[in-house]
Amino acid sequence: MLWPMLVLGWDYREVSPRIWRLRQWRALLRWSWRVESIPSSEPLIDVASGLCGSSPAFLFMMVDAMADAGVRMGLPRGVAQNLAAKTMEGSAKMVLEGGEHPIQLANNVCSPGGTTIEGVYTLNRAGFKGTVMDAIITACEKTQGKPQTYN
Fold this sequence. Notes:
two-stranded parallel sheet; 2 strands; about 65% helix; about 10% strand
């Protein structure tokens, strides 16, 4: 099942019927949507827009790269793509529903001297986390209208 995502901005200083209605909407939407509330300062709204609006493209690229690796190693394209997408779906569910930090979840999958820690080592050497963070920061800065710098 797909879970639509909604980010609600609110002014924490305001106590009014509008805030009360916002809380009612949030309670109602939680039945079928994932709802996050953030203070409605413009910089935070821009960050949420950059993060949520751009990240799906980055995740699609990750699924594509995973599928390409599967194809390179001999899997048919459809099987590789399905396995990659389902792996990402299951991993996302574990983050959302499990209560553990994502790094702890990753560590749980890494056996000493195993295949996963070897792949994690390769990603770390390539600057995976910094590259992902740079992509999201760049998207957020673009949303905020900041000049883009390319390194």
